[in-house]
Design a protein that fits this description.
Layout lengths: L2 H61 L9 H14 L6 H19 L3 E5 L5 H10 L4 E5 L2 H10 L4 E8 L3 E2 L1 H7 L5 E9 L3 E4 L9 E4 L1 H6 L1 H7 L4 E4 L3 H10 L3 E5 L1 H7 L2 E4 L9 E8 L9 E9 L5 H11 L4 E8 L7 E8 L5 H13 E11 L4
Helix pairs in contact: 1-3, 2-3, 11-12
Length: 383
């Protein structure tokens, strides 16, 4: 083959490559045009949805009812559950619910500005849980303690509060239960948050740090990782993971264990991510407010019960649940602080208090107990 033949062959290959690239570019342009058209439709539908939200707000205001609630937890849960059930993919249900939470949050903001108190400061997992549940269109307000979150909701300074109730590895948050004993607030919802702990520091050589700051629960959740990777480091408990991150910015010989949001706020480098010992580490939070929540179809009821002082007291409390086919998903006991060896029991059961079998069981529980209080019936957490 002479040089002219080689040149012709090379030119043909180039032409084929150009044709292939042109064909690919044509297909991509067609798909991008389709995406643009879908986005235009989506934007128009979002505008129509927002206009409907404004009409709902107008009707509610014209009704002039004192106890009219703009935020409806059961309605939101019904929408999110329906979207998950109708989702045909390829987006996972978790992503679909995250998108729709933001749509609902933005539309709700057209009806009413909502303030949500959480256990601060900014950057804590409690704030993440608040944003996950209510979306980013609400105003989140940090509080110094769980008790203060309750107090601000009771006083009407904020509309709702978000407080931690239990962690899958460290157990129940006893203080939250204790505050419920003396608070008139009700549970309006729940949210679960996967907890990912990260080692962060300003030190470029993380192996040389001498101390690590974190909340006591976070230190406990990363105990094995710390023993394996930083066995001789001083572990210093602080009031919150965000406080830990703040201290780490001021101390180059230290690190902090906290969430990714704290690293972003305090401009810390994440040296190691997801260092929690249990990869299923999850914290459950409760949404507290003043409203009773109607049935959503997938509900949970939380009870506070004081047993009568008699033999088999706990059995007598559980028997009505079994008799009416109710699942008890959690039970905790706390000292009443009224007298020695007297306790309150906190129970979670499947179902809504207005459903016939649950209502009947509650009637029988009232006869068997010294005191019973429904802390709330509310939609189950949605991923």
């Amino acid at each position: 083959m002479d040089n002219n033949d080689e040149k012709i062959s090379s030119d043909k290959l180039i032409d084929k490559a150009d044709d292939a690239n042109a064909n690919i570019n044509k297909k991509l342009l067609e798909i991008r045009d389709s995406i643009d058209a879908i986005d235009d439709q989506f934007l128009e539908l979002l505008s129509q949805r927002a206009e409907c939200a404004e009409k709902v707000a107008q009707i509610k205001r014209e009704a002039g009812e004192v106890d009219l609630w703009f935020y409806r937890p059961e309605r939101e849960a019904q929408i999110l559950n329906r979207m998950s059930e109708n989702n045909r993919g390829p987006l996972k249900n978790e992503r679909i619910t995250a998108i729709y939470r933001e749509i609902i949050s933005s539309c709700l903001a057209l009806e009413q500005s909502i303030k949500v108190a959480f256990l601060g400061p900014n950057g804590t997992f409690s704030q993440e849980a608040s944003k996950k549940h209510f979306g980013h269109a609400v105003e989140t307000v940090p509080m110094g303690s769980i008790g203060q979150v309750f107090k601000e909701v009771e006083n009407g300074t904020v509309d709702y509060g978000v407080v931690p109730i239990e962690n899958s590895t460290e157990g129940v948050i006893s203080y939250t239960l204790d505050v419920f004993m003396h608070s008139p607030l009700k549970i309006s919802g729940e949210v679960t948050l996967r907890i990912h702990q990260n080692l962060m520091t300003v030190n470029k050589n993380w192996q040389t740090i001498k101390r690590v700051y974190s909340h006591p629960q976070s230190l406990a959740q990363c105990r094995q990782w710390l023993n394996d990777n930083l066995p001789n480091i001083e572990q210093i408990p602080v009031s919150s993971n965000t406080e830990a991150a703040r201290r780490a910015t001021e101390d180059p010989d230290s690190g902090a264990i906290a969430g990714a949001l704290a690293a972003k706020i305090y401009k810390l480098d994440i040296a190691h991510s997801n260092i929690e010992d249990s990869k299923d580490n999850t914290t459950r939070f409760l949404v507290i407010g003043k409203q009773d929540v109607p049935v959503s179809g997938k509900d949970k009821t939380t009870l506070m019960i004081s047993a009568k002082n008699r033999s088999g007291a706990l059995y007598h409390l559980l028997a009505p649940l079994a008799a009416h086919g109710l699942d008890m998903t959690r039970i905790e006991s706390r000292p009443s602080r009224n007298a020695n060896w007297e306790y309150y029991f906190f129970m979670d059961i499947d179902g809504h208090s207005s459903e016939p079998n649950v209502a009947k069981a509650l009637e029988e529980l009232a006869e068997e107990s010294e005191l019973i209080r429904v802390l709330g019936s509310y939609p189950k957490a949605i991923l």
